[in-house]
Every structure is written in structure tokens, then in C-alpha cells.
Amino acid sequence: MSLSDEERRTYEWQIWVPDFGEPGQEKLRDASVLVSRVGGLGGLVAYELAAAGVGRLVLAHAGNVKHSDLNRQLLMTHDWLGKPRVESARRRLRELNPRLEVDGVAENVDEKNVARLVGDVDLVVDCAPLFRERFLLNREAVRLGKPIVECAMYELEGQVTTVLPGRTPCLSCLYPEPPQRWKREFPVFGAVSGVAACIGAMEAIKVLSGIGEPLAGRLLMFDLREGRFRTVRVGRREGCVVCAGAEAGTGTDP
Amino acid sequence: MKVTVKYCAQIKQAIGIASEVVELEGDCSAQELITRLAQQHGEPVRSFLLDREGRHRTNNLLIVGDEQVQWATPRPLEDGDEVTVLPPISGGSLRAWERARERVRVRVRVRK
To answer: CA nearest B48: which of B79, B85, B23, B96?
Structure first.
């Protein structure tokens, strides 16, 4: 279905982007994306995807808004303290884009819901803090052949990579086991998570619309303390228990 | 030969420096260099890089230049190489009960 006049007016500035155009916009409108957790990273990913005109977002995040969320979780508002995060997120996203379909799931990703959540969308953006959630998302996305954008941050550093199952290393290739010393609370500025999130959102837009070159088999690392960005090539790990048998060509084809 | 080693995220915080230049005599692989640096810097850096048996922690990404190196495949170093060690990092936002549960797990592990 072609774009409505309102959609053309709303997305005019990005429709001008070479290679994107109205066909790219239609692909975004017809796409669905799961964002795992809508905190400092995922909230900004969801906001950018909503602004860009992705048709449907599934947001998975348990818990209520608290004060310490507010330095970086831009979908959470002061007046929503103590109330469910996904509701705050849904409200903010719909204010920005009333055409957006939002499925807010007040649960974090776990063994019980991962198949349903990942199976319901075209692409996953992983912004979860716990490696057990990240490994579950990775396993399911690889199993279903769906692209997954991995976003992470620490202090003034961040990283983003895009997993295309069967073609690139998956999260388990990079990290064969859960880290031993992952500190669950860590220093970070909202602007740092925002940088990683915007890069992650752009990766999702690129993969869904087919423009540009995603960070497939490449890890983008940045250190905002020094103002440095670099991209390194990463490879699949022989014998990876998750993706060794995965074949390319399923899921969203960039 | 001289190589530059760059540390990221938690390892950078533990070691207290972002990078160092290391002078090496004779042949050395990137993997051997990490073992030497772990022993040289001691705790807590050692535990970030090696397990109790002295094996490399494969959850750190080892990068030479702009290319990841698999831990299982020795990568000979050359003069001027830049080695980066990148520990796993993640997203944010945990609920209080998850943090509490994690603290309990840590205590249980310590008692063992």
C-alpha cells in the first residue's frame, strides 16, 4: 500500500535520503520491531524508530519508573514515578507518532516469553542489561533467522553490532559464556546511551529498508571521553552452540 | 618490538590506564602478551583476563589492529601492532529486586 498524504508530509525529509525514498518508508511502516527494555538505550531506540515511522513496536520491560531512571530513560517522566515503565513509554511514543502501533509488555525477556516476543516481529533490538536475557534473545533470533541489533554501553563507552543469522557472528560467538564479572550497576551518562541507541536505531532502519551497509560482522566501538569511534571486524566462532548450524537467507533480508 | 595495548570499559577502570606501550623481546603472540600483562598487573586485572587455572577468559574480545582474533588461534605480533582488550558490556536499567538477587548470588558464591 502506498503512503498516505499525511505520511508523505511527516516523513518528507527522510524520503529525500538517496536509496530510501517512498519504498523505504513503506518498508518501515510495514515493519515490526521488538525492543528489549526501554531504559536508557532501548527507550531512545524506540523513540527514533517511532519517529522514523516504523509501523509497530513491541516493548518488553518490567517494573515501574523510579528516580534513578530519569537521567537517561527519556521515555520515562517525573509524573509517572511508581507507575509501569511500558505505559510511560507507550504514552510518549504515541504522543510523537499516533499512527504507531505499540504493544507494551510489562515483562522482561525470559524462557517463557522469548519465542512469542521474537516470533512476533521482523527485527530485534537488544538493549537488555542481563546477559541471560541477551543470550535468550540471540538464541531465538538466530533460530528464527531474524536480524538482531546489539547495543551496549559502559561509562563513556559504547558498542553496536548487527547480527544477521548465518552470515555474521552472533552474540554467543562473541561471548561464549556469561561474563564472570559483569557489574550490574555501572556509571553512565544518558548522552552515552543515547549515542549507542541512535546508532542502533539507524542499524534497524538500514536493515529493514535495505539501505546502506549494516554493521554486519563489524563492531562499532566508541569512547566519548576521547571522542573516538572505531569499527573492528568480528568473526563467527567455530563450534558456536547457537549459530553453527544457522543458514543465511531467512528473516529480513537487507 | 613495541606494541600498544588498549584497555576498554571495566578493564580500563580496573587497570587505571587507557593504554600502554609494551616492549617485547623475541616472538610473542597477542594471547601470550595478555597472559604476561595479567601476571604483571596482578589483581584485579588478572581476574578480568584469566580464570583461576590461568586460561584466557574468552568473554573478552581480543582485537589486533581492526580485526578480532580468536583466542584459540595464536596471532603473532609485529612491531607497531595495536592490541585491544574489550570486556563484555551490556544495556542498563535493572529493577531493585534483580540487584538484590544478584547480591545474594555473589554472597553464595563467596561462601563456597
So the answer is: B85
